[in-house]
Design brief:
Structural class: alpha/beta
Distance between the termini: 54 Å
Radius of gyration: 21 Å
Mean pLDDT: 82
Strand content: 5-15%
Shape: globular
Length: about 270
């Protein structure tokens, strides 16, 4: 057999082997994704209708949420109750990340916490900056790549003063990496329904507005910092159009503890 033909056959075998390896890796990644179980569907089809009957949230734009395919629900964040309202008002099953300690408690309280967060579609992940933030993004990407609807808060944490803070570019990275459409979500009044420190929600009328989906692929690849920033800014502008909140113009984070932290933030302008 001519050497050139041998080389071509070898290249084909390597290509097939690589493709099979990639597929196996994808299957392993899918297997690692925590999917909602029976408790989630009990909450969605039995508990959720009762909650909607009692609290009567005003839901706008449900038709804007694609019924199939990858989608990111990007919302402002005012209250703990936000993570309950989005799943019960979305026309699709929703998953999102939550602090891992909600799933790691022991005894009766730990069991109740795990059951509650599992029921609302949460997936536990360790929070933090640097490597922890990147690992959280990778877990988010794996969930989106299963074709799920994934909810997140681009501000990173709750707004304690009601203003809308600058979005962290993780949402832009996810949208550009996965090709998912982004549906902006505007929550209005949830900080009055369950203020910070309140253990239970009050009976207050709130609004959940789903905006028109955004396709951000035209902005460029995910490895472009400029594309991530532009994508994130477009998402935050769409959220602002739904809520009308005052813009803070800064990231929602604690003031730097010292000179070293100030230097680190100056050198790391992008937030994940």
């Amino acid at each position: 057999m001519p050497p050139a033909e041998c080389g071509r056959r070898y290249a084909r075998r390597v290509s097939i082997h690589d493709a099979e390896g990639a597929a196996a890796a994808d299957n392993r990644a899918d297997a690692d994704v925590q999917r909602p179980g029976l408790l989630y569907f009990v909450a969605r089809w039995i508990v959720a209708p009762v909650a909607k009957l009692v609290y009567r949230p005003h839901v706008v734009g449900k038709r804007n949420v694609p019924r199939y395919g990858k989608v990111i629900l990007a919302s402002n964040h005012l209250s703990f109750i936000d993570s309950v309202l989005i799943p019960i008002t979305s026309p699709r099953r929703v998953q999102f990340l939550a602090k891992s300690h909600y799933f790691e408690g022991t005894g009766f309280r730990g069991a109740v916490s795990r059951a509650f967060f599992t029921a609302i579609g949460a997936v536990g992940v360790k929070r933090g900056a640097g490597q922890a933030a990147q690992e959280a993004l990778e877990q988010s990407r794996r969930i989106i790549d299963t074709g799920a609807a994934f909810a997140l808060y681009p501000e990173g944490t709750r707004s304690l003063d009601g203003r809308l803070y600058k979005g962290r570019t993780g949402v832009g990275w996810l949208a550009l990496t996965t090709g998912a459409k982004v549906v902006p979500v505007g929550l209005i009044g949830t900080n009055e329904m369950q203020p910070v420190g309140a253990k239970f929600p009050r009976v207050r009328r709130v609004t959940v507005a789903f905006g028109e989906p955004l396709d951000l692929a035209h902005l460029g690849p995910a490895d472009s910092g400029r594309a991530r920033r532009q994508a994130t800014d477009e998402i935050m502008a769409a959220i602002h159009a739904l809520t009308g909140q005052e813009l803070a113009g800064t990231y929602n984070e604690s003031p730097p503890a010292g000179a070293v932290e100030r230097v680190k933030r100056a050198l790391r302008p992008e937030r994940l």
